[in-house]
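Many introductory courses stop at the sequence. We go one step further.
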Amino acid sequence: MSEPVIELRLWRQFAAVAAELHFGRAALSLHMTQPPLTQAIAQLEKALGVRLFDRTKRSVAITPAGEALLPQVHDLLARAEALPAHARAAAAGETGRLRLAFVSTVGFDLLPQWVRAFRKLNPRVELDLLEATGDVQLPRLARGEIDAGFMLHSPGFAPEGLARCLISREPLVVALPGHHPLAKVPDLTLEAVLAEPLVIFPRRIVPSLYDAIFALYHAAGHSPLVAQEAIQMQTIVNLVSAGLGVAWVPESVTQFQRPGVVYRHVAVRKGRGSRKALQVPGCETSLVWRQDCTVPALQRFIAFAGERAQVNRQGTSQRAQ
């Protein structure tokens, strides 16, 4: 047998009678006459199968059942009154749930700062964070399992069908074993580095950046000697520390100070005569999301990320001058 559906109006009337313990005064507080109120309470008691008030000609007393029910009714009415404000806050992105994925390079510095600042500004937005490489993020975005993701890519690359906000640009630096002879060379040249075994991520992880690194080797007349592949940047740096080879990593990875590893910028070759100038590729990090995503909290985060990214890029530009 299904439970009866009881309107909020009846609960409000019950709460009013419980407060006044007088049907006449309760009716006045509800801006109604007494007979309909008396009938409404009788209707509520019939629906519940429970007596809520003991009535005599001179007094009204709430029953133990009514007394036990009253706090929950007050809570129900308070939550019902708050619903319109909750709806407006959710539509404005002030409340809700945001599912964000991120690559490991963002987790070194940028993500902790941004998450802390965003939560301070939007304490009622729940953030679900997932560390995932680009090849994992893309299908999850397509299936709607995440709302947005921080992805690493080569400059100007944009995943098809996704909107993006540029977060940062940074150069690639080379990670070297601390005991390697090149670690002590004052002016490290590109030609010296290209001859070393390479530790690199699989192409499927960041295909645009993988291709840019290989294009550098080919332009210099080298075929990369891949000694080992690894997915996470921390693992790549650990393998460098073990002496398996050198690795090209985003400059932000230098914040991961692993004993036995040094990070160095590499001098590029300038073009002379028919020789083309070589340039170590840079990389970018973007926030990407589906263009048809309508999660209000995401729009708030996109605006937040855009403002923060602009400030960060201006600071980087000023430091470079």
